[in-house]
Design brief:
mainly alpha
Amino acid sequence: MTTDLHLNGEVATAAASGNAATERFATDKS
């Protein structure tokens, strides 16, 4: 259970970072 929570936390962090990078890229493009 602890491993699952840790894994989910890392995935959430990666998703948040990916979203920020995508938004910055979209802003630079337009």
